[in-house]
Amino acid sequence: MSRLIFSQVLLLIEAVVIVALYQVFSDFECRQTDLFVLCRGIRLGMVLGLCLAAGFALLLFFQPSLRSGLVDKAASGGPASRRWGIVHIAGLALIAAPTVILSQGQMVDQAGLFLSALALGGVAALVGAALWLMPASAWRDLFRDHARILLPTIAIALLIPSLAWAISLAWNWFETLQLATFYGVAIVLAILGNDVFVNLERETIGIVDFYVEVAESCSGIEGLALTTAFIAIYALMMKDDLRMGRFWLIVWPAALLLSFLLNIVRISVLILIGAYVSPELAVNGFHSFAGWLSFTLLALLILTIVNVLPGLSKTPRATNAKALTPLTEDKAAAFIVPFLAFMLSGLFVHTFSQTPELWYGVQVVAMALALWIFRKPILALTRDLDLIAIGAGVLIAVGWIVTAEPAAPYASLAEVGAVALTVWVVLRVIGTAVLVPIVEELFFRGYLFSLIDDGSAWRKGLAIAVTTAGFAALHSRPIAAAIAGVVFAAVMLRRGRVFDAILSHAVANALIAAAALATGQWSLI
C-alpha cells in the first residue's frame, strides 16, 4: 500500500509543479505561435490525463477490491520497474527543461522544439509512471478483471472536457451564473475593504489598477462539469450502497454550490494578487488548466467527505456472481462507448480546426466504428416500426424547422470542390439521420435514463429531467432540443423500448436533414 500511496502523492505534487511552471510563472499562450493546433492538442491531452487520473484515484479510494488487486500487483519493484522510473524522471525533465533553458521569447520563436519537448516528455512521464508502478501485463489483467467498473469510469472521465464544451455552446443559458460570479467577486472584494471598480457593460471588475473581465472562462462552468462528472462516477461505483434520492437531491446541489463559491474565492484571490503583489502572476493564474486542477481537487475532497456522511448509505444488496461476458457484448458498454466516441471526436475537431463543420466526417467514422464494435448488444434490442414513434418524429421535425431562425450558410463550404462537397453532404446526412439518433438515444434514453429510474414516479420524472437537460446542452437551440428530449423520453416509456426513441429521433433528423439539403441551410442540423 505504501508504494501505491507514494505514487499517488508524488504524481499530485508533479502535476501542481508543472501547472505552476507553465500556467502561473509563464506568460506563454498558444495563440502566440503558428503551431496553435499542436499547442491546443497538448493542452487537451493534459486535461484528459488529469481527468483520467482523478477518476482512477476515485476508484482506488472507494473500490476495495480494485485497490487490493492493484496493491498486490504493485507490491514491489524490480530492475524493470526502476528503469521505468528513470524514464518517468527523464520525461519530467523534458517537460521542465524549456522553462529553465529558454526565455519567454525563445519559447515563442522555437515553439516547434518547445512543444515537441512537452509532448514527448508528457508521454514518457505518463508511461514511465504507469510501468514503474506495475508491468503492462498486470495493467491488462487489472482491466480484464474490473472492466465493468473501469470502462464507465474512463468514459465519464474522458467526457468531462466535452461536457464543459457542450455547456459552453449553450452559454446564453448561463448568463445568470456569470452575473452571480461577477457580483460574488465584487462582494468579497468589498468585504475585504477594497474600493471595487465595476463596469457592467464590459463585465469588468477590479481594484486599484488591476482589472479582469469575468467572461465565460471565469464563470465556473469547468468546475461544475468536473464536479458533476466525479459525482456521477461516485454514484456509479456506490450504486448498490447509496441512497440515490438523497445523494442527487442534497449532495449534488451542495457540491455544485461549493464549486461555484470556490470559483468566486479563486477569482477574488487572483485579483488581490494582481493588485497588491504581481499582475503577471495573477493573469497567469487565470489559465484554465490551473482551474481544472483546483476544481478536481475540490471534487475529490467533497467525495471524501461524502463517503463518511451518515444517512447516505444503505444495507448492501446481495449480488449473485455471474460469468463475465466479452466487453463488446456488454450492454452498458454498447450504450456508453459510441456516445463517448461521438463527443471526443467532436471535441477533437473543434480543438484542432478553425472550421470544424468541414470535418464532420471524423465524427461519422468514430460513431460508425464504435457502433460496429458493439453491434451485438445493439442489434439485440427489440425492433419494430411504431406509428406513434414515427408521428412524434414528424412533429419534432416540423417544429424544429418552423421555429428555426435564418442563419448564414457555412462560409467554409464555398471553398471546397464539387466532389468534396458531395462527400461532405452524404456524410452529414448519414451522420445526422442514422448515426446520431442511435448514439444519443442509446446513451440518454438507454443508459442514463435506466441508471436514474428505479420505477417510482419521482425517479422517473428525475430521469426525464436529467436526460433532457443533458440532451439539450448538446444543441445550439436548447429549448427546442429540450422539448424534443421530453418527447423522445415519452416515446421510449410508452412501450419501454429504446428503439422507439431511436426511430422517432431518426425520423425527425431525417426530415430536418432533407430540409437542410433542399434549402442549403445546414445550420438546421
What does this entry look like structurally?
With 525 residues, the chain is mainly alpha-helical. It has a domain at 375-524. The chain is 74% helix and 2% strand. The chain contains 21 helices and 3 strands. It has a 3-stranded antiparallel beta sheet with strand order 1-2-3, covered by helices on one side. The radius of gyration is 24 Å and the shape is globular. The N and C termini lie far apart (52 Å). The relative contact order is 0.08.
Shape: globular
Mean pLDDT over the full residue set: 79
Structural class designation? mainly alpha
Number of strands: 3
Uncertain segments:
316-324
Order of helices and strands: HHHHHHHHHEEEHHHHHHHHHHHH
Distance between the termini: 52 Å
* Number of helical regions: 21
Query: Spatial order of the strands in the main sheet?
Result: 1-2-3
Computed Rg? 24 Å
Sketch the major β-sheet: 3 strands, antiparallel
Into which percentage range does the β-strand content fall? under 5%
Summary, kept brief:
By secondary structure, the chain is mainly alpha-helical. It has helices at residues 2-23, 36-62, 64-73, 79-101, 104-109, 111-133, 136-145, 147-169, 175-191, 221-237, 244-276, 279-285, 288-306, 331-352, 360-373, 375-379, 387-402, 418-452, 457-473, 478-495, 498-519, and strands at residues 196-199, 204-207, 210-213. The chain has a domain at 375-524.
